[in-house]
Amino acid sequence: MDKSFLKYSGIIIAMTFLSRVLGLVRDYFIARYFGASGLTDAFWVAFRIPNFLRRLFGEGAFSQAFIPILADAKDNNTQIEVQNIINHIATKLLFVLIVITLITVIISPIIIFMFAWGFYFSPDLVQFNLASDMLRITFPYLLFISLTAFSGAILNIYNHFAVPAFTPVLLNISMILSSIYLSKHLNTPIMALAWGVFFGGIAQLLFQIPFLIKIKKLPKLALGNHKAVETLKKHMLPALFSVSVSQINLLVDTMIASFLVSGSISWLYYSDRLLELPLALIGITLATVSLAKLSQYFINKNHEKFLQTIDNALTIGLLLGLPACVGLILLAKPLIITLFQYDQFDAFAALQSSLSLMAYGSGLMAFIFVKVLAPIFLSIGDTKTPVKAGIIAMISNVFLNIILGFYFAHVGLAIATSISALINASLLYFYLNKLSIFNISKNLYQTFFKALVSSFIMAVFILIFKSETELYLRASINSRIILLGTTIVLSSIIYISSLKLLNIGVQK
Hints:
Blueprint: H1 3-34, H2 38-57, H3 61-76, H4 79-106, H5 108-115, H6 117-120, H7 126-138, H8 140-157, H9 162-166, H10 168-180, H11 191-214, H12 227-242, H13 245-257, H14 264-299, H15 303-330, H16 332-340, H17 347-361, H18 364-379, H19 384-434, H20 442-465, H21 469-474, H22 477-501
Helix pairs in contact: 1-10, 1-14, 2-7, 2-8, 2-13, 2-14, 3-8, 3-12, 3-14, 4-8, 5-7, 7-11, 8-11, 10-11, 12-19, 13-19, 14-15, 14-17, 14-18, 14-19, 15-17, 15-18, 15-20, 16-17, 16-22, 17-19, 18-19, 20-22
């Protein structure tokens, strides 16, 4: 296996793990101080809107369209021209973001109505007005985080993966401090979360500036046009959709959940947060490293390394993703109880969140494969094919949401999202195969079988030896962590031992 691929993946996984653990600490404090109610629903909507657009203008579509352009410029142009490209794209991005931010802040009630209709049609307008006020504070986060992601893309191309991966830690710290301290000094305590998002965005952007200066790639304002900007537009417009289907699906979930009982949006949020931990560690890490590598190998016409990178990414995805999928499903309730069931977050909220976590967890492998497969098309300049798959997946999600949401409420929405991710991943591989870009190797089939058998053995162990729910409920937070940690560690040992017995191997 490519040592540099493993090295950079390892760096990002380590930094991302730190960020996500702090993210769970952040959510612990939010759950403890604010619970799962109509007020928290209003905040999650106000936060999800800029977070959704961040996937478009930040590390999602924009970065995936920008990285191949910068990689090509780095290999085939002078450093002066590379800086020129960075300057022009940064200027255009800044201008667009400022305009969007100003408009949204002015018309925030209309935006909330678009994304959470149920708030407007509720008996009172408390949620609607609160969400509108918080959106005016949280939305500038889009400006800060998109520029942060732009900076991170530059650093990634120059093999500085640790800094962008560490940066999200600062948002979590800001929100934790706001929950604990700022909330005590506001008339509406939950508004502290919105300010935590605002200041966290500023901190993330400022943090990366010294590192850009160090590699002499700090963007500067540049007026006029540049052909790189036109190329970016051409690649980004379809990529906006293709890489953001899961986020669009989550927004559709939010729209429908706004009509359900109070707390539904929060239950979905907390379960989605636990899904995001392995998805970020595995899927987003692999997507980040593989896109940079694939773009370079494609430009240099190194077909062998190109295919090996895909195979390596899928192999790592399988080996890490399958046991994580099993763990999320079988340990859903202990996870939610251990992390969130304190003070304002009651047993009913924990039960509802654990049910949606099982539904989300069942789709983890599909989410990971979408993250790995979509960049393959983008690295070779094919932005249309992922859009085809994305459109079909999104339409499927809307219909499944309506049907399953009617019968199973918020759990049905989570099931629909997982099924649509499976449809998306299946179509992406179908097109890769049809276009003769990539076929699953014999080694990958063997890896899948061995990982599946090892995961099954691990699942049996969990079902037999995991602690009863009542034991978690009676335990203190430290005891809960020890119980859950022991189960996870022993399960991991069982899984790894099973892989070794099956003589698991990777492509050299």
